[in-house]
Write a structure and sequence with these properties.
By secondary structure, the chain is of the alpha/beta class. Helices cover about 40% and strands about 10% of the residues.
Amino acid sequence: MPTAFEISARAVHQAATVLVDHLQDGLPFRELRPRIHQADPALAQDWAALGTTVKTDIDRNLSYIATAPTKAGWLTRANRTWRLTGLGFEALRTYPDPVTFFSEATTRYTYWRTRRASFDTAAKLLSELPDEQWVAVEDLAAEYEIDPEALAACLQGTRTEGWHLALSAEGEAGYGLTLLPTETDAWRALLERDELYDEAASSFDTVRALPAKRLTADALAALVLGEEPGQDGIPQRPRRVWVIRGTDTGGASLIRTLWRDEGMVTLPAHRLPALSQGTGPQRVRKAVDDADSGATSVQRDRRAEELHTFLSRIQEGDIVVCTDGPKAYLGVVRGPAVYTDPLQDAAYFTRPVAWQNLDAPLDFVADLPAELTGRVADADARIVDISEFASRLEPLVGPEPERAAPPPDITAVLPDATEELADGLFLSDASWLQESVDLLRGKPQLIFHGPPGTGKTYTALALARHLTGGSLNNVRLVQFHPAYTYEDFFEGFRPRLPKKLSPDSPAQKRERDADTSTGLVFDLVQGPLRRLATSAEERPAEVFVLVIDEINRGNLAKVFGEMYFLLEYRKEFVHLLYGSDEGRGFRLPPNLYIIGTMNTVDRTVALMDAAMRRRFSFMELHPDAPPLTGLLSRWLTENQHPQDAGLLLDELNRRIAEGPANDRDFRVGHSYLMQSMAHSSPRALDLIWRSQVIPLLTEYHWGDGTDIEETYGLAGIREHLGLRPDDGA
C-alpha cells in the first residue's frame, strides 16, 4: 500500500502536470481539483485507505502541502488561482518521478521554514522600498544571511508586495531563473508602472531595470537598521577569527610550503565546479552532493559547511590562525575566494592571506589563550570558527583602524555568606556557610552529606540562590536515581512524532495537519547540565549553580560521561559524545558551580569511587555537629513552640548512638520535627513519629533483633523525659 508521502507526491505532481496546459491563465482550485482526480482516479481511494492515520481528505491535504512547491518558487496561488511558474515547469522536466519531484520541493521548503523569519522580513522590506528604487537579490539575501537563489525563487512563488523589485545585480528580472513569457511580460508591466523599466537594455525575452535606480548595499543596510545612509550608528560586521588547516600529500602542514610561499590559504576542490565568492549554502550543498555521491551524509554535511564558510562566511580583514605542531601562525585575509585548477584532479579554492609572524611563530600553549586549545583539538575539521577570541588575538596581528580596545576579561565572583542567610537557615552563625563558599572558590563542586532529615537539599538551594543573587533562572535542581543516564543529564536523542506543533497559529495548524507521516523523528535534546552550561558561557559575569539531589544514587561515571573529566579540568575542552559541539569542543564554564547532596545512610547504592570523590569537596550536616547543633531549639523558639520536640529528638539520637548499629549516620535529622503539621495538634507529633520516624528506624535495624517500639517509641521516650502527650498543646 502506498504511503501518505507517496500519495501526496502524486497529487502535487499531477497538479503541476495539469497546470502545464494552462500556463497563461492558470486554474482556480475548484477547476483544478476534478482534473487531478480524472488524471489519477485511484488518488482518493488510496488516501482513504490510510484510515485514521490521516486527518483530512486528499483535496484539503493538497491545499496544505502545496505550500512546499510555492515556497520553492514552482507554484503561485494568487486569488485562489494556481499557476505553474517557469521554475515549476523546469522542475517537472528535471524530476519526472512524483516522489523525487515532491521530495525536492520539500527540501527547499525545509530551508525556507528553518529561516522563515529572515525570508518574511526580507519580503516585508521589499514592500517598504523607497519609490522608484530596486534592490539586488544578493544584497538583500546577505542582509538576512540566506541563500540568494532560494530567496529569488521564494519571491517567484509567493508574489508578496514588491516582489518584482528584487533583481539581479545587473538589474535583470528573474535572477537568472527560468521565466515563462507570461512572467517576463508581468515583470515588464510592473517595472513600467513603477517607472523603473530600462527599455534600451531590455529585449523581447529580457527585462531590466534602470541601473541608476538600484539601492546600494550601504543604503539597504541603513534601511534595514532604520537609519540614514552613512550614519555613524550603522554597525560594521565584527571581525572574525578562523583556524584553517591544510596538509600536502605527505601529511605535512601547508604553512611550511604553499601557504607560506604564496601568501594564501587553500581548500581542496576535487570534483567540484568553479563556485564563486558568496555562493549560497543550497548551491554549495548540491555541488558537494554531486561531487561526493559515494560519501556518507555526515561527510557531505561537513564538506558543504566548510566550503560555504570558505567561500562566503570568511571576509576580507578576518584573522586566520594556522597551526603546525606547537607553532601558531597568524594572518589577515586580503581578498575573495578564487577557484584554481593547475592540474587535473588538483583543483582548490584559494584566499590571499598576509601572514604576520612567519619568522617568529607563536607558541600555541604559552602565547595563545588556554581556552583556545579546546577549540582546535578536532584534527578532522579544516575550518573552525573561534571568533570569541578576536579581541585577544587582534593585538597580535596589529591594530585594526577605528576599533576600540579589547574589553577586559569578565569573571564571576562568588559572594561571601551573610548572617542574614545563616539566620534564614536557623544556623548560629555564617561560619559553616562561609567555609562552603570558600571550598567552592577553590573547587567548583561541593557535596553536602549526612543522615536523612538534616536539610541538605534545603540548605543547598538556599546557598545556591544566595550565590546567584536570587536569580531563579541561574539555579537548576535535578535528582539522580539508578535509572538516570547521560542522555537525561547532559544531552541525548529523544523520539517524537513529526511536526507536533502547538496550535497557536493557523499556519502551524496547517503544517501539523499536513504531516501525515506515522514515523518517529529523533531530536538531539539538551539536558539540564548542557542548558545551564550554555547560559553560563553566554553570561560569564553571572554565577550559575546546579543542585544535584541524591547524587550518589546515580551511576556517576555513566551519568557524567565526558563531564567526569571536565569536573576536574575546567579549562580544558572535550568533544561531545553526540558531536553537538561541531568540532569546536565543549567545556564546563568556570562560573558554573555544582552542589550535590548525599544521604550517607543509603546503603542501596554504590559509594562514590575515589576518582569522583577527588572532584568534589565535602561538607557534613549532622545532628550532633555544627552547624546543626541547637538548630531545632532555635527554630522552636522563633516559631513560639515549646522545646519538647527538641528534647525528644535529642533523646532519640542518644538511644540510636547507644544501639547495636553504633553508626553515627543513623541519627535522625531535625526536619522531621520542623514540619508545620508536627505542631498543629497534640496528636500530630505522635502521627509523624509513628508514620515517618519509626519506619526509618525499622529499616536501620532490620534483622538485628531490636524491639523498635520498646527502644524508640514516642510514649517510652516521653515517659523517660517526664513529658506528657499534651504538654505544650
